[in-house]
Amino acid sequence: MFLSNNFFLILLFLNSNLLCASASSLPRPHPRKTCVVRQHAQDKDDAPAILNAFKECGNGGNVVFLNQTYNINSVMNTTGLQDCEIDLHGTLLWGTNITYWLNNSLPIGYQNQSSAWFFGGERVTFRGHGYGTLDGNGQTWYDFVGGVSNYPGRPHGITIWNTKDSIFDGIRFVQSQMWTMAIMHSKNVLLSNIYVNSTTDDHSPARNTDGADTIFSDSITFDRWIVDNGDDCISLKANSTNILIKDSTFYRGLGVSIGSIGQYYDQFEYVENVTVTGITSHNTRYAAYVKTWTGQQVGYPPNGGGGGVGYASNLTFTDFTMYNTTSTGVFYITQCTTFSGVAGDCNSSLFNIRNIKFTDIKGYVGTSYIADMQCSGASPCTNIDIEDISLTKYVLDGVPVVEYECQNVENTMGFSC
Ligand SMILES: *[C@@H]1O[C@H](CO)[C@@H](O)[C@H](O)[C@H]1NC(C)=O
Ligand SMILES: *[C@@H]1O[C@H](CO)[C@@H](O)[C@H](O)[C@H]1NC(C)=O
Ligand SMILES: *[C@@H]1O[C@H](CO)[C@@H](O)[C@H](O)[C@H]1NC(C)=O
Ligand SMILES: *[C@@H]1O[C@H](CO)[C@@H](O)[C@H](O)[C@H]1NC(C)=O
Ligand SMILES: *[C@@H]1O[C@H](CO)[C@@H](O)[C@H](O)[C@H]1NC(C)=O
Ligand SMILES: *[C@@H]1O[C@H](CO)[C@@H](O)[C@H](O)[C@H]1NC(C)=O
Ligand SMILES: *[C@@H]1O[C@H](CO)[C@@H](O)[C@H](O)[C@H]1NC(C)=O
Ligand SMILES: *[C@@H]1O[C@H](CO)[C@@H](O)[C@H](O)[C@H]1NC(C)=O
Ligand SMILES: *[C@@H]1O[C@H](CO)[C@@H](O)[C@H](O)[C@H]1NC(C)=O
Ligand SMILES: *[C@@H]1O[C@H](CO)[C@@H](O)[C@H](O)[C@H]1NC(C)=O
Ligand SMILES: *[C@@H]1O[C@H](CO)[C@@H](O)[C@H](O)[C@H]1NC(C)=O
């Protein structure tokens, strides 16, 4: 151990001499304090031991999970970490005491949603090494809520909270309780080589199992994701800016979502500068879609609301390969969302959608429409550029898909409504 540490220091020194004229700017290397979390006997709650490990090693240390299954039977809050490395070699398996979670999951302060684990800090590196897994035991939840949307108290798997300059890599997320993760109040975070799979094995849908949702966050990169689920693959919500989603593969979910947004009466929210590129989609409902609430407030979040203002602008969706997209409009906009069960009122939203590029889209789909855009009469969509589309309709092998359905779309480029 001692020898190998010295060896590492020498290498570091040589490298730094190659790269810099002076080695004096090098931080003084010091061994990291390491906390190895040991699992309890069967069924005992491992959350207290995990909280202790983060308390001991959350500032400048290394938290290590062995290749074991850890039972999490209570909520965890491990925020405020500093320069912390986490190595997950095993599985964190969440308990299924629904009574407990409904009463204790931690509120996130948006859409009345809540979470099983608040996690965050600055300069955090969380590695799953392609193997480490968060397992939410979600089938219990899918069966319990039986398709009811946004069941109060049903927890998200993890909330990445107030996190800056951090990396999450090689982590698997399976059968999440609800949204897999929410990324909130965070900036400059890279999430790479992430596998998400939340699918149901019976008649209850895996609804609300979003792969990730960004809220009040800036400069977030999703690189090499695989998502197989029953809802949004990745969803960019209120105040998501400078977001990059690249080189990812999505199965069965709804596709990449902007929104829903505009749910809070008279509140200004926006989404700006989003690039989604290098995407392969198998049996998703859309390639991408934008969803806002109407201009009238009906009820309250999570399942009601509306009347929010703001805009979504500079959204680029490019280099998509589609296999069997299932719904009307490979690209879709709706501004008609209102209290569940209510319809109409598609022209009242003041939330503006503009500056969109949907380009270099190929493959085969189950619709005749390249785009279906129901924009609000009170605030039409402008500057929509759709070009370089090479889609065929699968049922009519080789027949090109060429149609558009538009309401209140102005200043189109590359196509006409
Ligand atoms: C973890 O343990 C399981 C069996 O318990 C084994 O199959 C697997 O290869 C191990 N993984 C790693 C990364 O060591
Ligand atoms: C998490 O812990 C921090 C620090 O104690 C606290 O300020 C924060 O309110 C907690 N968050 C939740 C959701 O309980
Ligand atoms: C489930 O949680 C509730 C509320 O915390 C508790 O009263 C009950 O004993 C727990 N049930 C089991 C089987 O642990
Ligand atoms: C709900 O949680 C609170 C505080 O955690 C506790 O006082 C209360 O007894 C719990 N109720 C049930 C039904 O478990
Ligand atoms: C918000 O969630 C709480 C429980 O966390 C629930 O009691 C309340 O009914 C929910 N409100 C709405 C509008 O769904
Ligand atoms: C997701 O899990 C289901 C059930 O285990 C499996 O059939 C499916 O192939 C998985 N999807 C991916 C993309 O691995
Ligand atoms: C837009 O986001 C990209 C990341 O996709 C970033 O590199 C670029 O700097 C952002 N542009 C502006 C004007 O902030
Ligand atoms: C969202 O962004 C707008 C515009 O900058 C700002 O007015 C609003 O306070 C932000 N909302 C939150 C909760 O940060
Ligand atoms: C929006 O896109 C335009 C054209 O690509 C670019 O000049 C501008 O910097 C972008 N603005 C933001 C805030 O990303
Ligand atoms: C294509 O989508 C249709 C409609 O959802 C579905 O019935 C069919 O099985 C899918 N085909 C393939 C090859 O996945
Ligand atoms: C919205 O307004 C357009 C004209 O701008 C009209 O054709 C359409 O029927 C209206 N839709 C609804 C649902 O009122």
From TrEMBL:
One of its GO terms (cellular component) is extracellular region. The keyword Iron-sulfur does not apply. The keyword Repeat applies. It is found in: Secreted. Keywords: Cell wall biogenesis/degradation, Glycoprotein, Glycosidase, Hydrolase, Repeat, Secreted, Signal. Residues 1-23 form the signal peptide. GO terms for biological process: cell wall organization; pectin catabolic process. Its main location: secreted. One of its GO terms (molecular function) is polygalacturonase activity. It holds the Pfam family Glyco_hydro_28. It comes from the Eukaryota. PANTHER family: PTHR31736, PUTATIVE (AFU_ORTHOLOGUE AFUA_7G06410)-RELATED. Belongs to the glycosyl hydrolase 28 family. This is Glycoside hydrolase family 28 protein. It comes from Oidiodendron maius (strain Zn).
